[in-house]
């Protein structure tokens, strides 16, 4: 995701992006009045809010904080409070992320990541912050039952959720977000399924299964400025997180899910989200050697999480490959991930990044090596010899020793450093 963790932690976790409910509402409800009476609107919203609080407590068998408030914001008020914060994000950080995405062919050269961030955040339906839920007047329709209640159930889940440890990498951040958003999305679906069966007043069996949800990826055209791969990365916490949460609840009920909020039971990698068996087995990311240029005149830029290197994880690799390869090949090539270290450097107007990925086996490393080459061929990258390419003023190399389980990707606008020697150290 391009949004910085510092800004995101102020909102995401207790703040949620509920574009999905806006989409579903537009598909299934009658046309809404342009300017509903604000007083009647607030009365109806409060009525739904009070009811969903009691329903949440009955389903989850917990007690919500007593002082939760519901407020109505207009779009403009929301933009003034939160939108300007996103628009003023560290421009240099967004440009670095854009460099990475374009170098790895996740975005087209004419895509703009800042525009994608702005458009993605424009369709909020409701936001939760501290102990207050804000519904957006133009986007949230309190007479739309049960979807309005689903939105509030989603937000109440965020209010209830306990804080998680600060993430140390992109991959850990995505895993935490998948737990938070997956839980909230699952609760919304759970409520709606029970509502539709007219048994919401009874305490439901914690292991009852939910119907298959609509495939929101088919609805991407409403975000024309958001590249498909970035959209897929953005939806990961909601879609894959909900599947992960569903697996936990179906396996052991709500108690198993609740335990995820207590370290060391919190998921730490997207691999654990994609493969719950790895979560149950406690399989975490391994420590990976960090490549460093022999030329020490390059300045290493700390990760957005404040560390010398970052970890992108299995799902990022899958999203990168799946933009060009069929889903099966992308999944198989990413599934052997064991850990990675990503470093970003700058010198004058040049940038350099190194990405060292360790795999479960030599075969898994070989499979990724081939998939990455296939991806670059399909992206029509300009070959510069064996496993070396030059495209859009960027030099990229892929190194793999068939006797090892590691692959090394180096990319730079400086040809000399892209082909130079590197040394590694253990983090």
| Average predicted confidence as pLDDT | 83
Q: What is the CA-atom radius of gyration, in angstroms?
A: 23 Å
> Can you list the strand order of the major beta sheet?
5-6-7-10-9-8
Please report the total strand number as a whole number.
11
Question: Could you tell me the strand content as a percent range?
Answer: 5-15%
User: What does the main sheet amount to?
Assistant: 6 strands, antiparallel
Helical proportion, percent range: 40-55%
Low-confidence stretches: 1-31, 199-224
Q: How many domain modules?
A: 2
Indicate the structural class: alpha+beta
> What form results from the Cα inertia axes?
elongated
Number of helices: 16
Distance between the termini: 24 Å
Helix and strand succession?
HHHEHHHEEHHHHHHEEHHEEHEEEHE
Structure description:
The protein has 427 residues and is α+β, with helices and mostly antiparallel strands. The protein has two domains: 5-280, no CATH class; 290-425, no CATH class. Helix content is 46%, strand content 15%. The protein has helices spanning 5-11, 19-28, 38-60, 75-87, 91-103, 113-120, 147-160, 170-196, 228-252, 254-259, 270-274, 276-280, 313-322, 327-334, 362-378, 415-418; strands at 69-73, 126-129, 132-136, 290-293, 299-301, 337-347, 350-359, 388-391, 394-400, 406-412, 422-425. The strands form three sheets. The chain has a six-stranded antiparallel β-sheet with strand order 5-6-7-10-9-8. Strand 6 and strand 7 (350-359) form a beta hairpin. Helix 7 crosses helix 8, helix 9 (228-252) crosses helix 13 (313-322) and helix 13 (313-322) packs antiparallel against helix 14. The longest helix is centred in the middle third of the chain and has 27 residues, at 170-196. The protein is elongated and about 70 Å long. The two termini are 24 Å apart. 43% of the residues are buried. Residues 1-31 and 199-224 have low confidence and may be disordered.
């Amino acid at each position: 995701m391009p949004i910085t963790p510092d800004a995101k932690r102020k909102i995401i976790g207790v703040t949620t992006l509920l574009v999905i409910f806006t989409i579903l509402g537009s598909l299934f409800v009658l046309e809404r009045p342009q300017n509903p009476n604000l007083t009647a609107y607030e009365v109806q919203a409060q009525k739904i809010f009070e009811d969903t609080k009691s329903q949440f407590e009955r389903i989850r068998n917990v007690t919500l904080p007593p002082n939760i408030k519901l407020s109505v914001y207009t779009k403009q008020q929301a933009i003034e409070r939160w939108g300007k914060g996103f628009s003023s994000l560290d421009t240099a950080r967004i440009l670095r992320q854009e460099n990475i995405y374009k170098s790895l062919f996740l975005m087209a050269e004419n895509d703009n990541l800042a525009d994608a961030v702005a458009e993605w955040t424009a369709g909020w339906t409701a936001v939760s912050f501290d102990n207050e839920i804000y519904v957006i007047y133009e986007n949230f329709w309190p007479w739309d039952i049960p979807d309005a209640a689903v939105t509030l159930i989603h937000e109440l889940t965020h209010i209830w959720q306990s804080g998680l440890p600060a993430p140390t990498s992109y991959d850990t951040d995505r895993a935490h977000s998948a737990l938070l958003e997956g839980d909230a999305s699952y609760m919304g679906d759970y409520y709606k399924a029970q509502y539709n069966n007219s048994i919401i007043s009874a305490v439901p069996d914690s292991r009852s299964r939910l119907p298959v949800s609509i495939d929101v990826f088919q609805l991407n055209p409403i975000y024309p400025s958001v590249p498909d791969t970035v959209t897929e990365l953005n939806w990961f916490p909601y879609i894959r997180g909900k599947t992960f949460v569903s697996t936990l609840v179906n396996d052991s009920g709500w108690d198993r899910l609740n335990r995820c909020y207590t370290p060391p039971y919190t998921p730490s990698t997207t691999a654990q989200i994609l493969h719950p068996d790895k979560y149950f087995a406690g399989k975490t990311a391994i420590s990976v050697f960090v490549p460093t240029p022999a030329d020490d005149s390059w300045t290493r830029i700390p990760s957005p999480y404040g560390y010398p290197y970052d970890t992108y994880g299995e799902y990022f690799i899958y999203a990168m490959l799946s933009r060009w390869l069929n889903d099966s090949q992308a999944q198989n090539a990413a599934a052997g991930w064991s850990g990675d270290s990503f470093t970003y450097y700058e010198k004058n107007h040049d940038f350099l990044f190194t990405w060292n990925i360790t795999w479960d086996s030599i075969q898994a490393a070989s499979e990724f090596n081939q998939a990455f080459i296939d991806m670059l061929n399909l992206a029509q990258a300009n070959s510069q010899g064996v496993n070396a390419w030059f495209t859009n003023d960027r030099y990229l190399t892929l190194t793999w020793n068939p006797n090892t389980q590691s692959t090394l990707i180096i990319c730079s606008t400086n040809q000399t450093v892209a082909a130079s020697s590197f040394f590694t150290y253990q983090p």
